[in-house]
User: Which sequence fits this backbone?
């Protein structure tokens, strides 16, 4: 029994060693790829520094694995896909977002190291290696957090984009599904949704401009102002993406769906878009991704449910259709 327990512990430790090797190998290749294509000199230097340190972490775990199984550990199967995904995000959402995402990932890895150190028995050599890696990962997280603060102005633009999209999705979903219950044609839903979407776009853009203008004049956003943040640009982004959110909500009805199929299609599209928007907001605001997604889905689905019920009440009790 004791021998079996020892074998199980050894196997469990080997699996952990392989896991940490794959994590560090992913980080090494990811930072290396991002560093090659990075034009910002300061961030490029930071990424190149991380490349060297992650290479050391990767090799330490590689040696630990080889001591137990005498064959090369495998690389992550999805590594190429993950690296391509980060490169796409860098092009689409900018350096601030990707830096924030890297910081979040470093924090997650650091937590896994700390938990493993508490729950598992490692050799003295591995303990020393883990302690060094934990120290390095803490510094990585701090460096990436400091780097992200430099791009606060850029993250404000991203925040304007995502909040505009988010509001357009949630508000128009309620309008669209409510109309769909009493509408006799999908065209009615499309027209009604677009009218509300256009008015909401103008209202959101105006509100964003006034809010940003007030902050700039009050000196409450000095870093963003120094980086060239413009109230007009912030208003433009907010308005455009609010309208995009509205278009996503009415898309199934524009394609000819009506009634229940149209409502289901609209809800599904909004859920997908909200998940993406929630991830972006969570990254740039240092909040939990799962919590942000849960909150936004709860709000949007609650709005949809309430307006569907109201639509049925209007149609059933008052006999109103349009």
Assistant:
């Amino acid at each position: 029994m004791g021998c079996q327990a020892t074998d199980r512990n050894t196997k469990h430790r080997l699996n952990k060693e392989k896991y940490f090797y794959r994590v560090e190998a992913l980080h090494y290749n990811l930072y290396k790829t991002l560093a090659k294509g990075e034009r910002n000199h300061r961030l490029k230097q930071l990424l190149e520094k991380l490349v060297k340190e992650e290479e050391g972490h990767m090799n330490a775990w590689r040696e630990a694995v080889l001591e137990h199984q005498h064959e090369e550990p495998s690389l992550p199967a999805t590594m190429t896909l993950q690296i391509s995904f980060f490169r796409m995000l860098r092009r689409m959402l900018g350096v601030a977002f990707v830096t924030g995402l890297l910081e979040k990932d470093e924090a997650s890895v650091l937590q896994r190291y700390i938990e493993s150190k508490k729950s598992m028995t490692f050799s003295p050599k591995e303990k020393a290696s883990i302690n060094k890696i934990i120290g390095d990962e803490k510094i990585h997280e701090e460096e990436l957090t400091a780097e992200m603060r430099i791009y606060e102005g850029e993250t404000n633009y991203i925040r304007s984009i995502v909040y505009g999209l988010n509001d357009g999705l949630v508000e128009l979903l309620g309008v669209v599904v409510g109309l769909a219950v009493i509408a006799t044609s999908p065209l009615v839903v499309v027209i009604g949704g677009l009218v509300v979407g256009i008015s909401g776009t103008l209202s959101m853009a105006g509100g964003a401009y006034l809010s940003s203008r007030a902050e700039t004049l009050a000196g409450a956003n000095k870093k963003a102002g120094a980086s060239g943040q413009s109230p007009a640009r912030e208003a433009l982004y907010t308005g455009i993406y609010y309208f995009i959110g509205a278009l996503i909500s009415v898309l199934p009805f524009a394609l000819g769906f009506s009634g229940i199929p149209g409502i289901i299609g609209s809800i599904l599209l909004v859920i997908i878009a909200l998940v993406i928007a929630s991830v972006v907001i969570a990254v740039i605001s240092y909040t939990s991704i799962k919590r942000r997604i849960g909150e936004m889905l709860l709000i949007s689905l609650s709005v949809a449910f309430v307006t569907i019920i109201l639509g049925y009440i209007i149609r059933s009790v008052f006999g109103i259709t349009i």
Summary: The first helix runs from residue 2 to 37. Residues 2-150 form a domain with the Ferritin fold (CATH 1.20.1260.10). The chain has a mean pLDDT of 78.
